[in-house]
Amino acid sequence: MPSKRIFLVLIVLGLATLVGCGSTATHTAYVSLPNSNAVAAYRIDNKTAQFTAIVGSPYPAGDSPSSVLVHPSNRFVYATNQIDNDISLFTIDTTIGSLKEVLPRTPTGLTPGSLVMDTPGTFLFALNRVSSSISVYSINSSSGALTPVAGSPFATAANPVAIALAPSGKFLYVLNANLASVFAYTVAAGVVQPVATPPVQVGNGALAITVDPAGNLAYVANATDNTVSVLSVNSSTGALTVVGTFVTGTQPIALVVLGQFLYVANLGGSNISVFSVAPTTGVLTQITGSPFSAGGAPLFEVIDPNHLFLYAGSQSGMIISALSINSTTGVLTTTSQSASTGVAPSSMSVSK
Question: How far apart are CA 283 and CA 264, in angstroms?
Answer without folding.
Answer: 15
